[in-house]
Every structure is written in C-alpha cells, then in structure tokens.
Known about the structure:
By secondary structure, chain A is an alpha+beta fold. Helices cover about 20% and strands about 30% of the residues of chain A. Chain A has 3 helices and 11 strands; from the N terminus they run βαααββββββββββ. In chain A, the strands form 3 sheets. A 5-stranded mixed sheet of chain A has the order 1-7-6-2-3, with no helix packed on it. Chain A starts with a strand and ends in a 5-residue tail after the last strand. In chain B, strand 4 (about 75-80) and strand 5 form a beta hairpin. Chain B has about 150 residues and is of the alpha/beta class. Chain B contains 3 helices and 7 strands, in the order E-E-H-H-E-E-E-H-E-E. Strand 4 (about 125-130) of chain A pairs antiparallel with strand 7 (about 120) of chain B.
Amino acid sequence: MRQTLFDNRPKxxxxxxxxxxxxxxxAASRGLWRTCSLVSSRTPLLFSTAVRPHSSLSGDLVPxxxxxxxxxxxxxxxxxxxxxxxxxxxxxxxxxxxxxxxxQDIGRLFxxxxxxxxxxxxxxxxLILIENHIxxxxxxxxxxxxxxxxGAEDFTLIGRPVLGKxxxxxxxxxxxxxxxxxxxHMQFWKRHRFQRKRIIVQPQTVLRINSIEVAPRLT
Amino acid sequence: MTSRGTPSRFLRSVLQNGLGRxxxxxxxxxxxxxxxxxxxxxxxxxIEEGVVDYAKKNPGTVVYVSPQTSTVPKIVAEYLxxxxxxxxxxxxxxxxxxxxxxxxxxxxxLDIIRIRKPNHTDSPSIQGQWHPFTNRPPSIGPIxxxxxxxxx
Lengths: 219, 152
C-alpha cells in the first residue's frame, strides 16, 4: 500500500450542490406564462440551492470559480483528541518507513534533484546532459546536494524545500565534457538586405547517476 | 543546417561507461605534421614541450607522432567505439593544440550531432506509470454476475 507523507487529507464525500434549473422560456401569451410560473413554483426543486455570498461582499482575493480553490476540503479544524490520534498515526507511519529503510526493503529509489538551474527526476544508472562545463575532471565522482524529493515504490519523502544532507545521498560520475553540435543562429529580414549568421557551439557535460541512498533517521 | 535537416541521436554512453568504473574513450591519437613547413610550427613546438606530459597523464591512450613531408598538419583521434576524428591544426599555437588534446580526451567517440533529449533512463517509472484510472475511486460498484430472471 502506498503511503505518502504530509498528505493527510480526510476522505469525505463532498456532496455537490447544484443550482436549480431555470424554467424554460416560452414565447407565449400571458395566460401560458402564468401557468408556467405557477408550475415552476409548485414543483419542488430537484436540487438544493447553494447559498453562496457574492465575492465582492466577502472580500476574497480571487473570484470564486470552480478552480479558485483545491478540490479537497481545507481548514479542517481538529479537536485535541483527534489531534492526538493524528500524531499517533503520524508516528506510526514514520516508524514503518524507518523500519523499511533499515531493513533495506526499499527497491529502486528515484529523486528530484536541483542541478545546473534545472530540476531533474533521476534514478540510479541514468544519464544527464548539462549545457556547461563543471569543475570536475572526467571520471570524478560528484555528490548532488539539493535533493527536493526522494521516492520508493511505497513511500515518498518530500523536502521543504530541500531534504537534509544526512538523509539522502545522490552520487554521479562525470562521463564526458564535449561540445554541442554546431547550431546555426541566423537572422534574416526580407527586403532589408539584412542577414547575420553565427554558429554557436556550447560546452556540454554528461553525468551518470551512480546511486541514491537514504539514511534511516526520519523524525 | 536546421535540426530537422541534420541527423540526430539520443543521449547514450559507450557500453555503460561510468557505472562500474570510468574508462577514457580515446584509444589512439596521432599527430601528422611536416618537419619544415611553417604551418606546422605550433605542432613542432608542442611536440617538443607538451606531448610527453600528455602521454604520461593519459596512460590509456597511445600517442603516435608521424612526420610526413608536404602534408597539412592534423591530429587524428580514434575512439573505442571505432569513430575517427580528424582536426586540422594549421598555424595553431602550442596552447591551442594542448586545449584541443584535452577536449579530444574528454570526449567519447559518439557523433556530435543533435541530441534529442538531455536525459536517458532505463527505468522511467518506479511507482507505476500514471494512467487515468490511478487514484480514482471506482464510480460503478463491484462487478457481479447478473442475476438470471428465470432461475432454474
């Protein structure tokens, strides 16, 4: 069973409240109109109306639409007993994850790493191409420190925003430091006798991610 | 030309280099120059000063120095995957030639063409690839066999 930390959304059945269907407008005589209105008032409304105050009155920052707030219920206020139960559940969860890590029962790990101005989703044995040279020779081993997220098959550890250095270790080897293929940068304006041509060759580095390790020291 | 008109390849390494140990991909480097012509002056200076240091630094690469009369001075680099790269070094200074040497050493022999993606994985999905039914509760109840109207 998959367990996600920091994801304690209570599962509730959110009932959808729909607005009452508008009566059908019929271009008809007054008598018919009267009967229509009477009919609409007599028949019970199929769906209960949602009582929503107007956004301008309540002073919301964003007008309320279907996408202005997330679909799960927010601001769930818990009583002290519920809070204690929640903390106990959290502690049990952390315990199970720690045990799994200690017994090396994890399997393949993946990590989201911030490197060279970009975020990469990275596993062991995979390759990464970076558009500049790093100050390390070919064949040297590098440790990537900014790890945002680490995941296994059953659990994920999400950093806020970065996970600790004692918790995760991502190591990589520099494979090659080459140049990119010659890219043509051309500007041409028609009927203005203007054209410039430039060939851009960028330095590139290829890294191989050797390993991702997690230490069992969650709290 | 444009990236559409030129060949392209995916990012890869030669024989999973870097997983176990790193192997320098440069197999052989040969310097072809002429002994008298002024275009190979820089090459001759580099051979006097820098070649021996380079060869000692890179024990896995074989360095050949072959003087030939009336030739354009060039450096031919051969890699472990069989690719051959020739660089013409007419009127280059010894510093430029040593930089060229380091560049050729740090390259792997794969073609320098457009690389389609800046990453490559053999195992792209660990928690299971997403499809529209993941993390959605089933809307219809459990599927049961239909009750027969005429129960015999």
